[in-house]
Structures are given as structure tokens and as C-alpha cells.
Amino acid sequence: MSDKERISLAQGEGGLASSQLVESLFLQAFDNEHLYQREDQARLELADFIRQGDRLAFTTDSYVVDPIEFPGGDIGCLAVNGTINDLAVGGAIPRYLSCALILEEGLERALLERIVASMASAAREANVSIVTGDTKVVPRGKADRVFINTAGVGVIPQGVELAARRCEPGDVLIASGYLGDHGAAVLAARGDLALEMDVCSDSRPLHGLVQEMLKVSPDIHAIRDATRGGVATVLNEFAQMSQTGIVLQEGSLPVRPQVRGFCEILGLEPWYLANEGMLVAAVSASAADEVLSSMRAHPYGCDAQVIGQVVAELPGKVQLQSGFGGRRLLEPLTGEQLPRIC
Amino acid sequence: MSDKERISLAQGEGGLASSQLVESLFLQAFDNEHLYQREDQARLELADFIRQGDRLAFTTDSYVVDPIEFPGGDIGCLAVNGTINDLAVGGAIPRYLSCALILEEGLERALLERIVASMASAAREANVSIVTGDTKVVPRGKADRVFINTAGVGVIPQGVELAARRCEPGDVLIASGYLGDHGAAVLAARGDLALEMDVCSDSRPLHGLVQEMLKVSPDIHAIRDATRGGVATVLNEFAQMSQTGIVLQEGSLPVRPQVRGFCEILGLEPWYLANEGMLVAAVSASAADEVLSSMRAHPYGCDAQVIGQVVAELPGKVQLQSGFGGRRLLEPLTGEQLPRIC
């Protein structure tokens, strides 16, 4: 393989080689007027934001997933969808992303091109533009191939007030799909486990689904997407922030049979496995049927179902009830079982 | 040293240990209402932006500087000031930053605390809030101690239109301070060079200086801060984007004697060395005196001086004229001489 086909330190130094990388790769793939200006910052009309709502949503995540490519996705679509979802669960309409890459010297150019194409494709699907960016290259052995940071800005429509602290006793908890698909797909894709499994990451953007939900009812109190730490960790956040209790019916938790089997072999529990395109909503009981129907009518919510209730007892705690009458508390994720899952 | 005093993988997994790290370190250091909400995104009133201008500025940079701590600064203040400056040179008033850390397992907690304190202190000086963040931990050997990404948003006041393409023949080029201080300080701080030098990084926020300049004249066409690739690379961007030529007088370029000596020993040219708190402005000739005076009245512009002119000849090129009548073109930075300078 020739030198041209691997990333060099010079491509991260801000000079000619950096500029050529930006022009030959990022400008073409992300293709928008803001990038073509080649200024140090994108300039976005505030009047355009004001038409959609009254608050700017702002968030960031870095992505260090291993392996970089896995069934159902790669670090590129993950970095776009993950940040979009952190905007979406606040009720925001995502608008613009930044893209900052830390590359290890020697990275295959072809791999970088696939990742960038995947980012561009995910951004197009979600109708967001990647308008500003940065690339650093560190010497071999100082990073693991590629790390991506995206920050995102979006607009929260007037009147939308989703917040974990708003969960109330009586609220119904709805999950938009199967638990743990992303975590299982990534863990299975790691060569060291020597396990094969037919499941794909659920990496996908959730803002369309959230907007549909908000259309049918103002009585949605909180939404979070279950990423690191899984549904169990999100629900612990709901319980702690609102000082309510949460009761889950184990039989109602949607887990694919192959993910359940995978978890049994590894001694994991699927409610701690990450998703990257699945949300949990706390909805007032009177609105639950209507919200559930709206979710099932959306392609990314077709497997939605009720998984539990918010209660006044057990403030700050999450209880799992098994079909056999057993009850136990689900703590937030502890320990070190799942590094580099996103 | 006990295990408690080093960063563990669990602290990057989104569960209990992550949450404890956020509460014990970031919330206390960055201390603002947006972080205390503990939602996945900060929510910022658009009405508050609109009062300051008509465009949102949005930018990002990752910081991978080696060493992490160096005379005059560290990766923390760099990550805050660098992103502030990418907003400032567009004429924006910086408002909010994100902070995303990639930590190597085993990082000393005390070092992380110093870095975070340095970020908090830099943010306070610049009157910006760090309102959203993310922490990932990768296994030992998969990153080099700590990488930081910050993204920033700010507001561009109505009527401000700074752009490299706006440079015009006749414009005067003004540098706000000495060339290459940051690059020299960081290179000298690397143990492998075995060189000692009495110079500090110039890491500092430039938005106050830029706002003072904009107050005295609307005839400032472009501003950039000279970071990676130095003044030579910034001026090549001015020349290329505006298709003008740029002529510099070598004798007018402000370089500290110790930085000049350091460059001679290493075979470097100071106009390729990075700054992290020094800008170059292209100003119409009629406004140059007034703008220069306003810069010299500001603590971060007190060493400002005219370094060259924009000309119609040599479109897209930068020419350096020596005191002895010699002329040569300065290309943008090429090669791999200065990795991990920021």
C-alpha cells in the first residue's frame, strides 16, 4: 500500500496537507455553503432558528467505539445519530453538527473515507448539516485509529418541556423498541469473544419519532435514549431526578431472543446494554394509548411497548418484577463490563 | 497511590462511576444552572442571543497537545481559549462551550483536576459557560492520557462581516503580538529536545480585543488567529481566499529574541510556529492607525504592529522581503515538523 493511502502527521498540522485532506474529503462529503466559506466558524442566521422555537439545544459526545465498523453501523453514523438523539430527547429539532476527528498516524485512508461517507449519509437522512470541523493526527500508538467528536445544535419548539425531573407517579413508561441491540452487536463483533450473533446495531435518528409523539400529546413528561448503561441507567436517572419510584415488568421488556441468549452466555443483563436508536418516555396515563399508537405508526417506533410505571413508593429506585412474583432493585450500571461501546 | 486516584474504565461507561465523576469534578468546577439540570442537552434562550446580534457562530476543535502542561498553560486553558478564539475572529461574542474528554485509563486524577480547574478559570476570564459535556475512558495504551474537544457557540453582532475573501489590495496587515510563542514554549517543554527557553505560551482569549477593534472601525476586512501553521499559513489563506498577494517585511515581524534563537537552533522559521492568543487583521489603510491604537490600548494587543500589506500582484501568494532586498515566497506549512502543538 502506498503512503498516499494512509493518514500522515502532516495532515493534522493545519498546513497544506491538512487543507488538501479537508478539500478532497470533508468538503465533498459534507457539501454545504458553511463549509465552503472556509472560515474558522459557521455563521447561522438566528432568524431561521427563531422560526422553529424559542430555545437553542446544545450538546456534545465523543465516540470511541471498538470495533470501528460493526453490523448495522460504524463510528461515523453513530457519531451523527448519537448527537442528534441527545438533541431529540429534549424535544429539539436538530439542525447543525460539528465534526472533530482525532486520527492515528497510519490510519487507512479507505477506512476514513467509509466513515466520512457514513457520517454524510446519516446527516442527510436526518436533514442536518455538518457545518464546522477539525482534524488532528497523533503519532502511531497515541490513539486507537479514529475517535470522533460531534457537537450539535437544534431548536426546541415553544412549550416543549421534557425533563427527567417531571416524571410523576402514575406515568406510564414506554420503550420505542428492543433493548440492547447496539451493545450486543458491538460486543459480538469484537473478535475476542468468538461469538457470532444475528443482531444489528439500532443506530438511527430519533427526532422524527419524538416530534410525532409531541404532536399527539403535551402530556409527555420525559424522554431519554438508552445509550451507555442501557434502560436501567436511564430509568435510575428518571427516578433520582424526579424522586419517584419506577416499577418494570420483566415480561414486558422487549428483548430479542438472540440478545437474551447472548446475555445469558456472557452473564450480562439486557437492560444494561446500550441502544443507539431507542428511547424511553414517561407519559401521563391518560395520554399513553395515543402516544403509543403514534410511536407504532413511525418506522423507528413500530416495536414500541409499555414497559412499566412511575410510582410514589421507592423514591429514587427502580424495581424489576419478574413473572414469578420476584422483585429486585436495578442499580445504575456499576463496574467495568462494557468499555468502548459507543 | 491508591486506585481511587487514577481514572478507571468504569468512569467512562455512563453508569454510577461516570455520574460520580461528573458530580465530584465537572459540576463543581464549571458550576452553572445548565449543567445542574443534568439533561442530555443544554437549553439556551434564543431571545438572549438575539439581543446581541443576528447570527449564531458555531465552531469546534480537539486538543491533543503534548506535553499536557507547559510554560504559560496546559491543555485545559488551551481548549477553552482556542475555541473562544475561533469564534472571536469571526467577530462573535463567545457565549457557551461544550467539553468532551477522552481519558486514558490510569490517568492521574490530580492531573485531571488541574486541567478541569484550568478550563474553569479560562472560561470565567472569558465570561463563557461550559454547559454540556461528555467523558469517555479508553483502555491503557489506546489514547495518550487526555484529549479534549470543545465546541463553542457565540453571537455575531449585526453588520459584522469578517472574512478572508474580503482582503483587498491596499489593506494593512496588523499582528496583535509576538509570533510563535506558543509553539516555541510547547516544543521546548518536550523533554526530547533538551532545550530550555524562557518563553511562555500566549494562550489567552481574543474576543475582547476583537470587539475593541470593531468598535473603532467598520473597515476591518478579515481577522484570523495564527494557530497551527503560524502566521505564514493564515496569510496564505487570506491570499488564496481573496486572490490578492501579501507582502511581509521580515524586519517588521515581531519575534522574541529567545524564540528567534530557538528557531535558528532547530532550523525552524518563527512564522510557521503556532500562537494561541495572537491574531492577524487585514484593515483598510485609512483605518489602520486607529485600529492599531485601539489594539495597543488592550492588554492582549499591547505589542501590536504592522507586519505587511495586501497587494494586487502575486494573487494567492505570500512574499517575505528581507532587509537586504531579498524576496521569497512563503508557502503554507508543509511536512511534518510540528505534531501535537495544540
TrEMBL record, chains A, B:
Residues 168-318 form the PurM-like C-terminal domain. SUPFAM superfamilies: PurM C-terminal domain-like (SSF56042), PurM N-terminal domain-like (SSF55326). One of its GO terms (biological process) is protein maturation. Coiled coil: none annotated. Pfam families: AIRS, AIRS_C. InterPro entries: HypE, PurM-like_C_dom, PurM-like_C_sf, PurM-like_N, PurM-like_N_sf. Residues 51-156 form the PurM-like N-terminal domain. Belongs to the HypE family. NCBIfam families: hypE (TIGR02124). This is Hydrogenase expression/formation protein HypE. It comes from Marinobacterium stanieri.
